[in-house]
Amino acid sequence: MAEGYPLVPDDLPDLFKAAMRRLAASVAIVVAKGNDGPVGMAATSITSLTVDPPAVLVCVNRMTSLHALLEPTAPLSVNLLACHHQEISMAFGGGKPRSERFRVGDWQDAENGLPALADAQANLECVIDAMLAYGTHSIVIARVIRAQVSDAVAPLIYQDGGYL
Q: What is the pTM of this model?
């Protein structure tokens, strides 16, 4: 433990996980370019960062296959799911092998060469500006270079292991 930090009680990790399961969040599919095609994962740790410049913050576990593809200036796609996209969320959350995930849903090529979900709540085409390692994850700052927004507002929300 680093000097100056209090000791962590043994039960804190479990209590923290229980607390975070109570935090409802929108689900997105984050996509990066792989050597053999696009790689995507479901994520709830995404938030807007700034409007000037337009940017989002994405937290990615360093153990995921997607993480190995992330580096500054690399393209990134963020697709905010709608309430009828539970099957897509489950596929990209590990329910399908990586090679089969883009067979679920209507994916189209975006201008940055990455797939974009045709009927998503919103599609953000980004370029990675910076990354910061913290614990088991990297905090990815992605500058938005293009955005598309659907007319309806009906996001897919995940909380406590299920969809609301």
A: 0.93
